[in-house]
Write a structure and sequence with these properties.
This protein is α/β, with parallel strands linked by helices. It has 10 helices and 12 strands. The longest helix is centred in the middle third of the chain and has 40 residues.
C-alpha cells in the first residue's frame, strides 16, 4: 500500500504547497489537518507512516502534538518532521527532545524535503516489517506452546522451556491411567480422516474434562491413546480411588458418545497392591496372576464399580 503522509498546518496555502510537492515526489496518499488536535484524531483513526508538522497552530500546537504522541504507545513510533518558519535553535532542540525525527524550516527546499521524506518512509517500512516479523514469531511460539500442551502437561512444558530438560525424580503412591479406543485403527481406515479426527478430538476433550474434574493430570495423548496420573504433579489424598472414579466416568462418557466404540482403561484392571486401597469401597473380581514384561507375575483385579 502507498505510505500515508499526514500534513499538519493551520495555513491552507502551506498545506496545499506541501501536498503538491509530495505528489511530485510520488506520494499520492496524503491527508491533512488544520491543527494538532485534528492531527491526533486522524493518527488514531487510521495508519499514518509520516507526519509533517507545523509548530505554531491554534487549538493544539506542534509541541503539544509531540508530547501526546510520546505518551501514546500507538503513536510514539511514527516519524515526525517539523516544518516551521521558526529558525530559533531552541525550538529545534525542544522539538527533538519531544521526539521529532527531523526539522525543516520554511520556505523549505523541495529537494531536501524529498530526501528527508523518502528516508523516513523507508525506515518506517522497515520498522513495520520488523514489527510484523516479531508478531509472527510470537504467534508461532504461542502456537507451538499450545500444540505441546496438547501432548504434555503445562507444568512439564514450562519446566522444559525453563531448563530445557527434566531432571529424573522418584514419586511414591502415583496412580496411572491409560486408555485407548478398541478397534480405532480399523475404524480410521473405513472413515474419512476429517470425521475421524473430529470425533476423536471431541472424545479426548471430554476425557480431559473428566480427568481434571477428578484431580488428575493429563500426561500425554497420542492418537487414540490417553494417559493421565494422580498424585504426580499435584497432591491427591486417594490417588487410586480418584483414578478409578475417573476411569468409570470415562467409560460411561465413551458409551454415550459412540455406542459402537469401546475403550480399554488400564487402571480399571488394578494390581493386587492397588486393590488394597479400594477393597472396602469397590466391587471387583480377580483376573488371576498375569505375566508382566520385566516383572514377576502379578494378580490383576477388575474394578466393576465404586461403592457410594
Amino acid at each position: 500500500m502507498d505510505p500515508v503522509v499526514l500534513v499538519v498546518d493551520d495555513n491552507d496555502d502551506n498545506r496545499f504547497t506541501l501536498s503538491m510537492h509530495l505528489e511530485t515526489c510520488g506520494y499520492s496518499n496524503i491527508v491533512s489537518a488544520e491543527n494538532g488536535r485534528e492531527a491526533l484524531e486522524k493518527m488514531r483513526s487510521g495508519p499514518v507512516d509520516l507526519v509533517l508538522l507545523d509548530i505554531m497552530m491554534p487549538v493544539l500546537d506542534g509541541y503539544g502534538v509531540l508530547e501526546e504522541m510520546r505518551s501514546d504507545v500507538a503513536l510514539r513510533d511514527i516519524p515526525v518532521v517539523m516544518i516551521s518558519a521558526l529558525e530559533d535553535i531552541n525550538s529545534v532542540v525542544r522539538c527533538i527532545e519531544l521526539g521529532a525525527t527531523d526539522y525543516l524550516t520554511k520556505p523549505f527546499n523541495p529537494v531536501l524535503l524529498k530526501a528527508r521524506v523518502d528516508n523516513l518512509i523507508e525506515k518506517s517500512r522497515y520498522r513495520a516489517q520488523e514489527a510484523a516479523y516479531l508478531d509472527r514469531i510470537e504467534s508461532e511460539r504461542r502456537r507451538a506452546d499450545e500444540l505441546l500442551a496438547t501432548v504434555l502437561p503445562r507444568s512439564i512444558v514450562r519446566a522444559l522451556k525453563r531448563d530445557r530438560r527434566l531432571a529424573p525424580r522418584r514419586h511414591e503412591d502415583v496412580a496411572v491411567l491409560f486408555c485407548d479406543v478398541v478397534g480405532f485403527t480399523a475404524y480410521s481406515e473405513k472413515n474419512p480422516p476429517e470425521i475421524v479426527f473430529a470425533e476423536l478430538e471431541t472424545l479426548i476433550d471430554r476425557f480431559e474434562e473428566i480427568a481434571a474434574r477428578h484431580g488428575l493430570e493429563k500426561i500425554k495423548t497420542i492418537g487414540d491413546a490417553f494417559m493421565a496420573t494422580a498424585n504426580l504433579l499435584s497432591h491427591l489424598d486417594e490417588p487410586v480411588r480418584a483414578v478409578v472414579a475417573c476411569a468409570l466416568d470415562m467409560l460411561a462418557a465413551a458409551r454415550e458418545f459412540r455406542p459402537d466404540w469401546a475403550v480399554r482403561i488400564g487402571i480399571v484392571n488394578l494390581s493386587g497392591r492397588a486393590w488394597l486401597h479400594l477393597r472396602n469401597r469397590a466391587q471387583g473380581r480377580s483376573l488371576g496372576l498375569v505375566d508382566l514384561k520385566g516383572k514377576e507375575k502379578l494378580e490383576i483385579v477388575e474394578c466393576v464399580a465404586l461403592k457410594p
